[in-house]
Specification:
alpha/beta, Rossmann fold, 6-stranded mixed β-sheet, 4-stranded antiparallel β-sheet
Amino acid sequence: MVMLEVKDFGKRFTSHHLNTTRKAVEGISFSLKQGGFIGIVGKSGSGKSTILKSIYRTYLPDEGEIWFDSERFGKIDLLKAEERQVIWLRKHEIGYVSQFLNVMPRTTARELVEQALLGMGETPEAAKIEAERSLRHFDLDERLWDTFPNTFSGGEKLRLNIAIATVKKPRLLLLDEPTASLDYQSKLKVREVIEKLKADGTTLVGIFHDLEFMEGLCDCVYDMNEKALRGMPEVQR
């Protein structure tokens, strides 16, 4: 079953003060079956994050189609989805991990993870147990669980961000450099969770500069330079 299909996708950005428009990406096409994992590779500025943000509808694309096989809405073009549908999909079916943590102020790390689960319909008791399990897995010091994450280090914020997104076990998970500021042991923790989600049927699209991390994890890569799918590159050891 095809879970995600991107057809002739393109996105432009307009600088109104300069009265200029530039194309960020164009002619992007690929499809992904349920439980598959595609890595997007290319030089900085090639539009990798633009693709992920458009799938998540942070950006509204200008060209093409992005079809997602939703459990609630059926096959839906995310470019044309209503705002209420996008909000529901983000809450229940599509997760997004960025390099940055943007959260509500005065909300503790524990509460952020619990809220993600409560939004999925979990009971407060189950949400508390699962949130603690996730925070512990990503080695967040228990002394930080009930503090506000604006005081966290970059690595701690990223691990919390991953915990919030993965604890919901989404049908589609978008990963934008999820290991960018993590040490080796933390990367292994992230990989372990991704492997389990993939085995359980989550479909994944990820951006990684760390090709060694991708090896044995992604099924294929989309090369932004060639605008084509290809096999995983071999890592030189």
